[in-house]
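Suppose a colleague, Dr. K., hands you the sequence of a protein chain of 187 amino acids and asks what its three-dimensional shape might be. Before reaching for any lab equipment, you can write down a predicted structure in token form. Begin with the sequence itself:
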Amino acid sequence: MKPMFRLIAAALAVLLLTSCAALAPPPPREFKLSQAQLQDLVGRHFVTAQTYLGLLDIKLTTPRVTLQPESNRVLTALDVTIAAPLIGKPWQGAASISGRLRFDPAARAILLDEPRAESFRVDGVPAAWAERVNTIGGWLSEQVLKGFAVYRLKPEDLRFDNVNYVPAEFKVRPAEIVINLVPQAAP
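The predicted structure, expressed as tokens, is then:
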């Protein structure tokens, strides 16, 4: 009788251990975007022009993405064209806008947040207007990029082993962005 008892006890112990393992929370996951992937995504989906007050057209083109791990930000360098009826020939220049990344659950999108004009300059602006144009142009460039959808996560990006995940943290590294995913809390 003792061997049968031991066999039943061992089976119950295995059953108990597998039940406990099933109750353990799923582990966090990572989703990565390389700098090259990010450059491709930004280049393909970039919104290039905005008109302000019906008078000022700002066109931002040729985005070039740089990762800034020291500040956990993404920097986008852009070519700038400003056109307005009163200035004649459009002004050309360059801008650098950095931003943090955040997740919008409703759109399942990674957005550029907290945009900050790191630099903004246009050539050919009369000296009396240069400071104002550069200040306003930097602010307008920030507005164009605020909430820019860098990447839309697919459902399969957020589902592993029948568990739904959500982005919890973004880490900017020298060659990639690492998105830490945690299991989604039950509603």
